[in-house]
C-alpha cells in the first residue's frame, strides 16, 4: 500500500470490556481475560462453545431514533463507537462535519436477524416477518448510521476477512486525496450468534467468539496520531505460505521505526497451534510493551483489527511512542499498521 499518510482524529469502541475505547485499553493493558459465557444453540442439539459478549449499555449510551427501533446489535454497537469517535475528534456527534464519508467493514454481518428471518421462513413462510428482512442485508448498518448521524459524503460497505480494515483505510485515503470526502469515518463491527461461535470451534475448540465495534475518524491533516505506514498486502494461499511472509511483515514494520522502541499489538489468541508463526515472527523487536488483545477480548472476526487499531492509536497518544498493529489474517493476506504519536 502506497497511500498518503492519514491522521487519526478520533477513536471509539464497544467491546466486551465496555462501551468506550479507554475501557477497552484498560482491560487489554491489565492482561486479564474477560469472563466468557456458554453459547446455546436453539433447539435440542447442543454444541459446547463460549462467547465474550458486550455488557448492557449504560444509560448515556442508549440511543433513540426511529431508524434504530428494530436495528440489530451490530448497528447499536457501531452507532455508539461512531459517536465516541466524533466526540473524541472534538465534533458534536449530533452535527458531524460537512464532507464526512463512511466505510463500514464486516465479515459476518447481521447474523442475528438473518438467523431469525430464515428460521421463520423454515417454520412458516407465510408468517415470516417482512420487517426483519431489511435488517439481514450487509449494508443495513451503514444505512442506519449514515441516516442517524446525517452523513453527507460517500458511504460504502466492505465485506472481507478480519483485517479488511486495511483495505478500508486504503479506500478512505483515496477518497480523501481525490476530494470525494474531507474526512472519513471507518467502522468495523460484529455481533455474536450461536452459528459464528460454533464455526470458530471447528478451527480449535478453545476459540472464544466475541463482538463489538471499532471506529476511527481519519483525515489528511489535523491533530492526532498518524498512520505512517500501511504494510501489505503480503499474499498467501496456505498457512505454510503465511508462515513465510510474516517475517517480511516484521522486517518492513521495524524498518519504519528507524531504531526506536514501539508498543506491539499482536493478533495472538493464546492457542499455540494457531499462534506459533506470528509469535515467532514478532519475538525479536524493539518492543517497549507487547499486548495481545484477542487473549483478553476474544475473537471478534471482522471487528478485531479495527479494535486493535483503536488500541494502537490510544497507545500512541498516551505513551508518546509508535505503535505497531499486527494483522496477519487467516485468509489470503497479511498486513501491519504503524501508528506514530502526534508530533
TrEMBL record:
<dbReference type="Pfam" id="PF00109">
    <property type="entry name" value="ketoacyl-synt"/>
</dbReference>
<dbReference type="InterPro" id="IPR014030">
    <property type="entry name" value="Ketoacyl_synth_N"/>
</dbReference>
<feature type="domain" description="Beta-ketoacyl synthase-like N-terminal">
    <location>
        <begin position="65"/>
        <end position="168"/>
    </location>
</feature>
<dbReference type="InterPro" id="IPR016039">
    <property type="entry name" value="Thiolase-like"/>
</dbReference>
<dbReference type="GO" id="GO:0016746">
    <property type="term" value="F:acyltransferase activity"/>
</dbReference>
<protein>
    <recommendedName>
        <fullName>Beta-ketoacyl synthase-like N-terminal domain-containing protein</fullName>
    </recommendedName>
</protein>
Amino acid at each position: 500500500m502506497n497511500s498518503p499518510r492519514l491522521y487519526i482524529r478520533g477513536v471509539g469502541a464497544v467491546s466486551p470490556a465496555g462501551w468506550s475505547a479507554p475501557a477497552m485499553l484498560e482491560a487489554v493493558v491489565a492482561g486479564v481475560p474477560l469472563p466468557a459465557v456458554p453459547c446455546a444453540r436453539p433447539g435440542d442439539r447442543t454444541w459446547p462453545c463460549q462467547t465474550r459478549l458486550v455488557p448492557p449499555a449504560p444509560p448515556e449510551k442508549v440511543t433513540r431514533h426511529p431508524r434504530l427501533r428494530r436495528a440489530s446489535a451490530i448497528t447499536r454497537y457501531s452507532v455508539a463507537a461512531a459517536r465516541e469517535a466524533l466526540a473524541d475528534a472534538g465534533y458534536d456527534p449530533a452535527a458531524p462535519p460537512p464532507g464526512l464519508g463512511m466505510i463500514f467493514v464486516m465479515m459476518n454481518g447481521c447474523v442475528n436477524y438473518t438467523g431469525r428471518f430464515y428460521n421463520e421462513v423454515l417454520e412458516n413462510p407465510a408468517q415470516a416477518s417482512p420487517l426483519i428482512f431489511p435488517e439481514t442485508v450487509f449494508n443495513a448498518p451503514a444505512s442506519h448510521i449514515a441516516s442517524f448521524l446525517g452523513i453527507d459524503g460517500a458511504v460504502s460497505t466492505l465485506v472481507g476477512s478480519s483485517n479488511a480494515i486495511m483495505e478500508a483505510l486504503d479506500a478512505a485515503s483515496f477518497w480523501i486525496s481525490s476530494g470525494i470526502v474531507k474526512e472519513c469515518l471507518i467502522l468495523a463491527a460484529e455481533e455474536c450468534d450461536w452459528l459464528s461461535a460454533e464455526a470458530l470451534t471447528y478451527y480449535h475448540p478453545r476459540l472464544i467468539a466475541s463482538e463489538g465495534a471499532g471506529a476511527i475518524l481519519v483525515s489528511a491533516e489535523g491533530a492526532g496520531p498518524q498512520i505512517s505506514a500501511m504494510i501489505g498486502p503480503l499474499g498467501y494461499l496456505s498457512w505454510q505460505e503465511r508462515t513465510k511472509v510474516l517475517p517480511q511483515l516484521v522486517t518492513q514494520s521495524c524498518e519504519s521505526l528507524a531504531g526506536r522502541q514501539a508498543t506491539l499489538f499482536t493478533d495472538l489468541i493464546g492457542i499455540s497451534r494457531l499462534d506459533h508463526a506470528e509469535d515467532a515472527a514478532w519475538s525479536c523487536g524493539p518492543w517497549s510493551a507487547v499486548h495481545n488483545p484477542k487473549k483478553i477480548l476474544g475473537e471478534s472476526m471482522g471487528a478485531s483489527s479495527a479494535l486493535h487499531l483503536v488500541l494502537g492509536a490510544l497507545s500512541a497518544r498516551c505513551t508518546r511512542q509508535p505503535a505497531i498493529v499486527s494483522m496477519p489474517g487467516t485468509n489470503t493476506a497479511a498486513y501491519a499498521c504503524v501508528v506514530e504519536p502526534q508530533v
